[in-house]
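step: validate -> pass
step: tokenize input -> pass
step: predict -> running
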Amino acid sequence: MVTVSLDIDPDAARPFLPEGATGGIRHLVDTDHATTEALGFTNVPMAIWIDEDNRIVRGPESASVERSSFKDIEIDDGWPDRIKQQLALAKSIPSHPEAYRAAIVDWAANGANSPYVLTEAELIGRLDPRNDDEAKAVAAFELGQHLYQRAGGGAEGIAAAKDWWQMAHDLHPNNWTYKRQAWTLVTTPEGKASDLSQGPNDVFTGNWLDDVTANGGGESYVTDPQLGGSS
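step: predict -> pass
step: emit ->
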């Protein structure tokens, strides 16, 4: 198993990586978002399954294996409206952690005979071909990354990259990895842990709550794994 953190700044991903032995699991940090381009990841957590013959047998799809802590937070009526709206939206995002974890275990035990392994036709049927705007979004986001890194990151990097990143957001509005990367760099105070709320800012036109709501809410935020398995 290989895990991949998508973040321009490796230090921002470090708190989410386990320390010490991890049972042979490799943990990588994708500072170029190369897996977004190559494998079709549009959010996190997502996964693909690759068998011993290097054949993709599932995904990309949402891949939660633990219940989100946001699901169990009780919303206090006294909290600011925006906080309540964010938590309510987070609670509405579908996830199937127990079922997805069980599916992985079944595949590990049964290989190609697992009911969760898709045929080639089923796999192709679930893939969403990249259109011209989405291909342009890849180029725009990569150019923004290059300019951000060449400027040394920080405020200067954001200023250099913002127009290209905004273009990527506009061209591929369902790609949350593009949006969340840019928003986090703007809304996270220096030296603090990554800001998960990613609220309104003066740099980009969008933010997490408003964009997810406009896009259809929690149901539209994930790629459901459809765990019915192969027909």
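step: describe -> The first helix runs from residue 10 to 13.
step: cleanup -> pass
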